[in-house]
Specification:
By secondary structure, the chain is α+β, with helices and mostly antiparallel strands. It has twelve helices and 14 strands. It folds into three domains: about 45 residues, 2-Layer Sandwich (Uridine Diphospho-n-acetylenolpyruvylglucosamine Reductase, domain 2), CATH 3.30.43.10; about 110 residues, 2-Layer Sandwich (Uridine Diphospho-n-acetylenolpyruvylglucosamine Reductase, domain 3); about 110 residues, CO dehydrogenase flavoprotein, C-terminal domain (Enolase-like, domain 1).
């Protein structure tokens, strides 16, 4: 099928894009990479009369690493994230996760902003940003505001972003210590059956700090504070990892679908978390 008729707009500034979204209201939608919106339009499941393309907004592109803070423009593609050496040095977990998103064709077009703002529970970046304790910068008709990634996701496809707002950038403190992003999927290009993002800092052989987030195991990404707490103060031995997995399981709520039944998903979640902890610990 093909989309219904629509008007195409390509603003060159954030203010211009916000003005269009405000002017046309419910009739307008912003588009970044288009991997979610275009299929919905082709299936006539999304009626868009005014399509606002963000590709021409240069201020939403680029990566900055300054004073230990990483800022990523929302229109950076997954391929650009992978290729950016400054980002790979400051936050190598971004490259590791981006390499596991879909396939090269998708990564050349798909953006971090689209991945984050859509609210799809299967997307990889939302959980990772919760693990990094990132902050999202949103621009709207009343100016800009900031929302913590851990507060942004409300339900599947529902977020704290208003319809007339655009996610323009994401910011986080460059992580220290070890990292890992583990993902199990049925085939290349598929969403995760389960995925785990883990950051670990050590003081000698002891775990001093950690952050854990899980993906595609609930209506929203799940930041597992209890699972991280189970590791702090331990030697990251088997009993501590077992405790972390046990603390994670009550926080997820997977649903049966074509990726498997609930018990299988819980099993895979435990396997992914265990692998991620072990690999992050080896890098710490």
């Amino acid at each position: 099928m093909i989309p219904s008729r629509f008007d195409y707009h390509r603003p060159d500034s954030v203010d211009g894009a916000v003005a269009l979204l405000t002017k046309y209201g419910d009739e307008a939608r912003a588009i970044a990479g288009g991997h979610s919106l275009i299929p919905m339009m082709k299936l006539r499941m999304a009626e868009v009369q005014h399509l606002v393309d963000l590709q021409g907004i240069d201020s939403m592109k680029g990566v900055s690493v300054a004073g230990g803070t990483v800022t990523i423009g929302a229109m950076m593609t997954q391929h650009e994230l992978i290729a950016n050496e400054a980002l790979a040095k400051a936050a190598p977990i971004i490259r590791e996760a981006s390499l596991q998103i879909a396939d090269p064709q998708v990564r050349y077009v798909g953006t971090i902003g689209g991945n984050l703002a859509n609210g799809d529970p299967g997307n990889d970046m939302p959980g990772l940003m919760q693990c990094l304790d990132a902050t999202y910068v949103l621009a709207g008709p009343d100016g800009t505001r900031e929302v913590a990634a851990r507060d942004f996701y409300e339900a599947a496809y529902f977020t704290a972003r208003s319809d007339d707002e655009i996610l323009v950038s994401v910011r986080f403190t460059a992580p220290k210590g070890g990292y890992a992003y583990e993902k199990q999927k049925r085939k290349i290009g598929d969403y995760a059956t389960a995925a785990a993002a883990v950051l670990i800092e050590k003081d000698g052989a002891t775990c001093a700090a950690t952050s854990i987030a899980m993906t595609n195991l609930s209506d929203t990404p799940v930041w597992c504070e209890a699972a991280g707490a189970a590791l702090v103060g331990s030697k990251l031995d088997k009993s501590a990892i077992d405790a972390a997995v046990a603390a994670m399981l009550p926080t997820i709520d997977p649903q049966e679908d074509n990726r498997g039944p609930v018990e299988f998903k819980k099993h895979v979640a435990g396997v992914m978390l265990r692998r991620a902890i072990e690999r992050a610990a080896s890098r710490a």
